[in-house]
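@channel sequence for tomorrow's demo:
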Amino acid sequence: MATIRKRTAGSYHVQIRKKGYPPITKSFRTRSTAIAWAKKVESEIDRYIYLDISAAQTTTVKEVLDRFSKEVLPTKKSGDTDKSRIKTLKAELGKYYLADLKPHILAEYRDTRLNSVKSGSVRKELGLLSRVLTATVKDWGVDLPNGNPVSQIRLPLPSAGRDRRLSKEEEATLLASLHRTPTVRTIMEFALETAMRRGEILGMEWDHISLKNRTVHIPVTKTDWISVLFSGLSQGVDENLLRDWSKGSIKYDKHSFDKAISSYDPSRERKPGFTTLK
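structure tokens (generated this afternoon):
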């Protein structure tokens, strides 16, 4: 049952009380609009389609991105990468209230970002935003007036995959450029031989490595449990450095590893014998 009261300022305050629902309130300038809104809400409640979007009208995209970054990202292996995507999303979309985040706004964001980054990056940013909005609805109880807007726009086509490996000359140039960082060179040789992902290599422990069988066991991967053969490392790889690194005597995380790699990237130094793989 809706109750409508006229306030001293001249507005009309509506309060709807219904069993199983918290009190629903809103103010209007005229009595006719107050009555129309009350009838609409009561009808939606009776048909079990009512959504309380008041939280979506007062919560910004920035707020839910920050909450996702604090509560969810630490539990994800992709957390470090997603932090930079969240920073981009906050800069471009953080000012909007959730209720105002319409598909056309995201379509404009998509098209603008495609002018500066590849389609794969845009797909990942929008995919992350979609996961944040899903968590907002399912885990934090904030109803969106029109559902998840990311699902209502066209995503860019995936980027073409890379289909070649480094040539012998390019590999030699790359490894030569890492002579000042022998640990990173060892990790790079391991990556070239095994095709393991960066996170898999940096998370590897000495107990996972069998020098006798020339294999490494990967208990946690993006796909599933695997063992990788690295017979090609019998010549050249520094096994002592490999042992120290995998035992934790030498510390490298994703950021320090990327910094070391970028510092001696021969493609950036424009050395002969190296062409881009992109």
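heads up for whoever presents: The two ends are 64 Å apart (CA to CA).
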